[in-house]
Design a protein that fits this description.
The chain is of the alpha+beta class. It has helices spanning 2-25, 48-54, 59-70, and strands spanning 29-36, 76-81, 85-88, 97-105, 109-116, 125-133, 139-145, 152-156, 162-166, 177-181, 184-186, 204-206.
């Protein structure tokens, strides 16, 4: 068992070292696990291509993303809030939910793993949603919040109920990390009304 633990620890450190080296080589600051507390405080000053590469977006999709961003041709919109996470607008009875894999801030800052956590948990920030298919047939998602234009990499949420809290190392916060389980909640629509299935039962899910 100890041998396996040492192996996992070594792999984790190796990944961290690679990420740090990758960021240093390209001249930007990489952070791990950040809480997004102040929407609009660090608006993006990145070029679109540079931001997408910093977020490890597959190279074959970058030109398509950039063209669509410049032409303002999103696939839809997502709402981002501390209460409900990242939820796709107007997408059937069970809206798609996402986690934030990475986000660019300011001029040369990138964070891998971001949790929205501003004070008003009901406040929603809207973001344009774009989707492209990579060479393996997988769908790559990015979002661009209107409040800051910080390009964001998303993944469809697969494991509901696990929340990872961490603190962005900014001037107003201290670093902290924790994990906890959160209860099921009734899914609501854009008006805040409960959503029901065909039998009239409330649809519940986990928020994160």
């Amino acid at each position: 068992m100890k041998k396996h633990l040492y192996g996992f620890a070594f792999l984790f450190l190796l990944i961290q070292a690679f990420s740090t080296a990758y960021a240093a080589e390209r001249g930007f600051l990489m952070k791990e696990n950040c809480v997004w507390e102040h929407p609009g405080e660090e608006p993006s000053k990145w070029g679109n291509e540079d931001a997408l590469r910093a977020l490890r977006i597959p190279e074959e999709t970058i030109e398509r993303f950039v063209t669509r961003i410049q032409k303002d041709q999103p696939d839809g919109w997502v709402d981002i809030s501390p209460k409900q996470g990242v939820v796709r607008q107007q997408f059937g009875d069970m809206p798609e939910r996402f986690t934030i894999d990475g986000m660019v801030f300011g001029k040369q800052k990138v964070c891998r793993g971001v949790l929205p956590a501003w004070a008003d948990i009901n406040r929603k920030e809207k973001a344009r949603l774009y989707a492209e298919q990579d060479k393996n047939g997988s769908i790559v998602y990015i979002a661009i919040p209107t409040v800051c234009n910080n390009i964001t990499r998303l993944s469809l949420a697969k494991r509901q109920g696990l929340i990872v809290l961490a603190t962005y190392e900014g001037p107003h916060t201290k670093t902290a990390t924790t994990k906890r389980r959160v209860p099921k909640n009734i899914v609501t629509d854009s008006n805040g009304d409960p959503v029901t299935d065909s039998s009239g039962k409330y649809i519940t899910t986990y928020t994160y």
